[in-house]
């Protein structure tokens, strides 16, 4: 189980991030610098395995949310530098929650309860249909309205299973 950390900000700079000394992988990894508007700055290393929700392309000036593993080792530098697992470009018409959901489809922070319907799309990261139970897994949940109860309840549009 991944313990997801999150940072939301505006992309202020995108550059290549070298990962091999001989340049064999040049251009494959990027460094995204995000600023949150309150003085917080984070660098995200974006690799070919980083999942972009809706396969969106990020550009300087975009408002984006980056998710990373809080248990992964990181260099002790400023600004902090994390390996991005999932990136989400902000959209006004959808909400996104990335978390571990238990056997009751309740998020690990207890804030969101999923009610799956026949129209909820269950897919893998590669877009293929997921045919098993999504419970007890790390999920990317894309949803619209939710109840104001605690936990909030929603019927997701799409669930992307992180295998």
SSE map:
Blueprint lengths: L3 E13 L13 E6 L5 E6 L4 E2 L10 E7 L11 E3 L2 E4 L5 E7 L10 E3 L6 E4 L12 E7 L8 E3 L3 E5 L1
Parallel strand pairs: 3-6, 4-7, 9-12, 10-13
Antiparallel strand pairs: 1-2, 1-5, 2-3, 5-7, 8-11, 11-13
Q: How would you explain this protein's 3D organization?
A:
The chain is an all-beta fold and 163 residues long. The chain folds into 2 domains: 4-89, Nucleic acid-binding proteins (OB fold (Dihydrolipoamide Acetyltransferase, E2P)), CATH 2.40.50; 95-162, OB fold (Dihydrolipoamide Acetyltransferase, E2P) (Beta Barrel). 0% of the residues lie in helices and 43% in strands. It has a 7-stranded mixed sheet with strand order 4-7-5-1-2-3-6, with no helix packed on it. The protein has a 4-stranded mixed sheet with strand order 8-11-13-10, with no helix packed on it. A hairpin with a 5-residue loop joins strand 2 (30-35) and strand 3.
Provide a concise account of the structure shown.
This protein folds into two domains: 4-89, Nucleic acid-binding proteins (OB fold (Dihydrolipoamide Acetyltransferase, E2P)), CATH 2.40.50; 95-162, OB fold (Dihydrolipoamide Acetyltransferase, E2P) (Beta Barrel), CATH 2.40.50. It is 0% helix and 43% strand. The chain has strands at residues 4-16, 30-35, 41-46, 51-52, 63-69, 81-83, 86-89, 95-101, 112-114, 121-124, 137-143, 152-154, 158-162.
